[in-house]
């Protein structure tokens, strides 16, 4: 199998070639090899020296501050530790940047997807890809699709090592969410879950031991256990087939977008992205997989 960076170059050529063929259609053209030349020129635009960067020769990456685990460790995105720090450096490597070529800048979450020019090449900060945001900014392919998580409260007697252990549990969940669908379709408890109107009510139910456990998406579970419910813990995570997708965020209509789409695609194809996800978002982060 070719090296990862070689496969990225091949992906660039193949995808752009497909665009070129589609653009040509059935038109007669006597330009000879002009289509091939155009494709090669477009492929070359993803070479490190040809990228339209905010700062020449330097990849500028945005994220918020403070930067929390498991996405970043020690509030230091530059150390390569934590899920999103590791993803950012893996993407940089795909495009030929050494770690020393990467500069981090602070970008508040809400301003990252606001319309207008950006002072970063891409932002990575658990930003869900949504239609309203896509009107104002560009996204790469998803680098993460959030699974569901089971959270138990302080002092809970519920022992969870598999989904079967939730069969007779009283589960709290918010109405109208993918988490509620996951409880009904995947967990399939013997009794109806307790359904709450909003996330605050779900958290209160967990604090007051009104339920044995709650189900929410994993990123929210990390926040609940770290900041909202002292003594709570993530009993495990499971896939439901749907969930929020996180993408690298770029300026709207950025010339860099196709290159980052391909870089994330190459990391996915090679299996490197899964390795990073398993390391930082799995059991080591306190979220073992439940089956």
Question: What's the arrangement of secondary structure elements?
Answer:
Layout: H1 4-24, H2 34-44, E1 59-63, H3 83-94, E2 102-106, H4 109-112, E3 122-123, H5 131-134, E4 137-145, E5 148-152, E6 171-174, H6 178-187, E7 194-196, H7 199-207, E8 213-217, H8 218-228, E9 233-238, E10 245-251, H9 257-270, H10 272-281
Parallel strand pairs: 1-2, 1-3, 6-7, 6-8
Antiparallel strand pairs: 4-10, 5-8, 5-9
Helix pairs in contact: 1-2, 1-9, 3-10
Features:
alpha/beta; 3 domains; D-Maltodextrin-Binding Protein, domain 2; three-stranded parallel sheet; 36% helix; 291 residues
Characterize the structure shown.
It is a single chain. With 291 residues, the protein is α/β, with parallel strands linked by helices. Helix content is 36%, strand content 18%. The protein has helices spanning 4-24, 34-44, 83-94, 109-112, 131-134, 178-187, 199-207, 218-228, 257-270, 272-281; strands at residues 59-63, 102-106, 122-123, 137-145, 148-152, 171-174, 194-196, 213-217, 233-238, 245-251. Helix 6 (178-187) links the parallel strand 6 (171-174) and strand 7. The model is unreliable at 12-39 (pLDDT under 50).
